[in-house]
Amino acid sequence: MDKPFHAFYQMPVLPPVAHVAPLRPLLWLKLGWDDLRHNPGPSIAHGLLLVAVGWLMLLFLSAQIELLAAAVSGYLLVGPIFGAVFYELSRLQAAGQPATFDASLDGALKNGKRLARLGLVLAILAILWVLLSGLLFERAFGGIPPSVRDNFYRTVVDWSYPGFFVTYLATGAIFALLAFLLSAVSAPMIFDRAVDMNKAILTSLKAVGTNPAAMAVWASLIAALTAIGFASFLFGLAIVLPLLGHATWHAYRDLIVRGD
After folding, report:
1. Furthest-apart CA atoms within the chain: distance in Å
2. pLDDT at 248
3. What's the rounded Cα separation, in Å, for the pair 54 and 219?
4. Residue 247: which H helix or E strand, with range?
5. Cα(74)–Cα(71) distance, rounded to whole angstroms?
6. What share of the chain is helix, strand, coil (3-state, %, to 5)?
7. 59 pLDDT higher than 60
8. Of 167-176, 177-186, 230-239, which gets the smallest average pLDDT?
9. Do 198 and 12 touch, CB atoms closer than 8 A?
10. Are 67 and 127 in contact (CB under 8 A)?
11. Arithmetic mean of pLDDT, 159-169
């Protein structure tokens, strides 16, 4: 019992983070697009699988607007974990190895196991958002929200609850910001370097803190492209999700200095 406190807990040594220009995320998107364009088959195939998951959520939850809205948001919160297949495709392509669907899936399953703890953290965040979302809808509608199928106009078209929408969107933005801070570079870093979750999350926070302007632009681009994907009845996500997955890999490689 005579050990000093710091012997029980020590802050991990974090890798250096590069300073980048505010518009640097545009380059990450370009590099992500190049990966997608040069090897579209596996990327779009994985994108279509993720779109299928989204459609299943719509199918089973479309009757309850509060669960549907929260599930879609939660689906996005854990998105960095889904990106493992795209990280692997970009890694294989950069290494000059065959970037096939099977190879990306094998690599993602093997290396992606290390993402389980981060996935759990993001899943807990998503569950908390689902619960809070349900409470917000119940308060707004004075009880059980009406079914989308039974009253589409009231739940989707009319929605004349400005105070509710401001609160709902602001709360959702807070959860989205938390997820972004925790996973901006942590998911590809865990995937690539086999570091523990704490070090990866702290590095992600460091990357955002070191480049607030660039990361604000990056978060805005992610939100805008994702919104476009949803506006196309999810079909656009077959392109948007692979593009963002590949671009996230390049963001990580650009921000986190090698050789640590």
Report:
1. 68
2. 96
3. 21
4. helix 237-255
5. 5
6. 75, 0, 20
7. yes
8. 167-176
9. yes
10. no
11. 69
